[in-house]
Amino acid sequence: MPRPGPLPVDPIAEAKRQWIAHGWTDAAAGMSAVTSIIRAQQLMLARIDATLKPFSLSFARYEMLRLLGFTRKGRMPMASATARLQVHPTSVTNTVERLVRDGLVVREPHPADGRAAMLELTPAGRELVERATNALNTEVFADPGLSDDDTVELVRILARFRKDAGDFADPRPLPEPL
User: Fold this and answer.
1) This prediction's pTM
2) pLDDT for position 3
3) The CATH number of the domain where 132 resides is what?
4) E strand spans, the chain
5) How many independent structural domains does the chain possess?
6) Domain limits at 84?
């Protein structure tokens, strides 16, 4: 059930106050940062879920369709999709099974590796992901609820955090053209 309005007090600020009052001062700022990020994720996912609901898509299903839609031929090995989405293979398998069941993706044997599968976007999947992307761009991504400067700074901070956590590495410099 949705709340009738904003809370009268920021619960994360109150939690930080309690952390300090209980002698956990060294951890209070970190606790505030972590819980703020988690709450922000909840708020953003709620907007995304509301936008994708008319398309009968979860964000996981949307991401898989969009990933396939970005490829030249609308297809890629399932292992590549798993690596790019950075989720457990079981989660990808479950997502793909639903997309196949709904006629949005087909799963075929890999042409060179008999143990692997290829995923391919169907015309219905391509049409749906384009409509869903237009809705997300309009209703969520064009205005994430932050100023342009704050958005740039937040992405910069979170990218540094993700890189330091081992999420990705800087790309190797390309050789100079001959």
Assistant:
1) 0.86
2) 63
3) 1.10.10.10
4) 75-77, 105-109, 117-121
5) 2
6) 56-138
